[in-house]
Amino acid sequence: MKVNEIMANLEAKHPGEAEYLQAVREVLETIEEEYNKHPEFEAAKIVERIVEPDRIFTFRVTWVDDKGEIQTNLGYRVQFNAALGAYKGGLRFHKAVNVSMLKFLGFEQIFKNSLTNLPLGGAKGGADFDPTGKSDAEIMRFCQAFMYELWRNIGPDQDSPAGDVGVGGREIGYLYGMYKKLAREHSTGALTGKSYGWGGSLMRPEATGFGAIYYVDRMVKQKGDTLKGKKIALSGFGNVAWGAAQKATELGAQVVAISGPDGVCEIKGGMDKAMFDYMLVMRANNHNKVEEMAQQFPDRAVFTPGKKAWSVKCDIACPSAFQNELNEDDAKMLLANGVKYVAEISNMGCQPAAIAAIQKAGVPFGPGKAVNAGGVATSGLEICQNAGHINWTAEEVDKKLFKIMNDIYDLCAEYGKQADGSINYVKGANIAGFMRVAKAMLAQGTI
Ligand code: 2IT
After folding, report:
1. I need a labelling partner for 417 at 20 to 30 A (CA). Which of 175, 179, 220, 316 fits?
2. Does residue 134 have an active-site annotation?
3. CA 147, 134, 102, 427 torsion: positive or negative?
4. Ligand 1 atom with the shortest distance to the CA of 372
C-alpha cells in the first residue's frame, strides 16, 4: 500500500475535506503493515475502494420557523460501505455539518460497526441545522421536513439511521413518526434510538456511555489498576457524557469536570444522581450552556468561562462531545497534570498530534471507534428485537452490551499488541475493524 499516493489521489478528488482526509490517513497508516501481508487485498484494490463512499445523498430541507419565516438547510446521507450488512449510522444536526464531516464519520462507522461483530454496514447523515435556541415545534417541523426527503433511501434492510450530536430520543420520535406515515411500515428497524414502548430498546440511551466505561475499565485493569477513586473529566453534557458519568460513578470513579461550548464546570466531590438528571434538562432545553449546571448546584459546581474540561486535573480524560476537541496543548496540559488514561467517547475526539503526545508519554489511549461502539451495537440489538417482535429486559440488553464491549476490547488488545508488551489500541481497533470488512469485500467480488 502506498499511503502517500492514495492520500494524494484522495485529496485531489476531495479538496479541502480535512476531517475526512484526517480519518482516512489514520486508518491507512495504522493498517499498512498488516495490509501488505495480504497481496490479495492489494490485487482487489480494497483500500482504493473502501475510502470512497458507495453513494451520497444531498438534499434541501425547507421548513417554517415559529415566526412564520421560511428556513432552508442542507441534509445529507452518506452510505459508505455495505460489505457487512445494511447501512447503519447516526444523524448529526449541528451548524457545522458538511459533507467532509459526514464522510469522516461514515468512514469511521464502517470499522466501528465491524468491531461489534454484528451485520452492520457503515453510514452517516445529518444536516447543518442548529438546534440551539429552537423550540420543540421547530425541531418537529425540521425533523418532518428532513424525513420527507430521506425516507425513500432508508429502511430496515437498506439503511437504518440513529441519533448523534443534536439528535436524541425526541428527534428520533419526530423522524420516525414521519417515516412511518410515508413508508406505511411499522415496528421496524428503519430508525434506531426509538423510545421504549414503540420499538425502542431499553438501555439504548445509556449504551454509548455505559459501553465506553466498560472499555475504559478494561484499559485500567490491563494496568493492574482500578476505576475506584479515579477522577474523570468529560467534555459535553449530551446523551453520551450522561451515560458515561453514571456508569463511571457506579464503578467508583468521580466525575470532576464536564464542559460545554461556553466553558467548564468543575464538580467538587464528583457528580451524583441529581446532577445526572439535570444533564438531561440541559440537553432538552437547547440552550447549550454548561454554566446552567453551576447555576443549579452553586455550592458544588464551579463554572469557568472559555476553559475546556482538560484544564481540570484528572486521572482519566474522555472527550465525549465532538471531533478534534482535544488538541496537542490540551494533551500536554493533561500529561503535566498526571493523566493516566485517555479514551475518546466522541468520534475522533482527539487531534492526531494529541494522540501522538499521549502515546509517546506511555499513557494508554482508547480510540473512539472502539470505545464508543456500544451505541451502535445496541442499535443493532434494537433491530434484532424489532425483527423478532420482542422486547428484551434492561438486564438482558446490558449483559449483551457488556459482552460486546469486552469482545471489542479483546480484539483491540490482540491486534494492537506491541513488541514491548504494551497495547496500541488505535492500531488494534483499525486493523481488527478493517480485516472483517476487507475479507467480506473480497468474498463478495468487485461490486
Ligand atoms: O457514532 C455513532 O456510532 C452513533 N451516533 C450511533 C449510530 C447508531 O446507528 O446507533
Report:
1. 316
2. no
3. negative
4. 3
Alpha-carbon distance 376 to 206, whole Å?
12
The protein residue with its alpha carbon nearest to ligand 1, atom 9, reads: 89
Q: What separation in Å is there between the alpha carbon of 112 and the centre of ligand 1?
A: 9
Average pLDDT of the chain to the nearest whole number: 97
In whole angstroms, give the CA distance from residue 17 to residue 110. 18
- Nearest CA-CA partner of 81 in 46, 63, 106, 62: 106
pLDDT of amino acid 385: 97
- β-pairing, 254-260 with 263-267? antiparallel
Ligand 1 atom nearest to CA at 163: 5
* pLDDT tens-digit readout, 21-70: 999 999 999 999 999 999 999 999 999 999 999 999 999 999 999 999 99
| Model pTM score | 0.97
Q: Please list every protein residue whose CB sits less than 6 Å from any atom of ligand 1.
A: 88-90, 112, 162, 164, 192, 347, 375-376, 379
How many angstroms does the Cα of residue 375 sit away from the middle of ligand 1? 6
110-165 residue pLDDT tens:
999 999 999 999 999 999 999 999 999 999 999 999 999 999 999 999 999 999 99
Tell me, in angstroms, the distance from the centre of ligand 1 to residue 163's CA. Answer: 6
Helix (H, G, I), strand (E, B) or coil at 10: helix
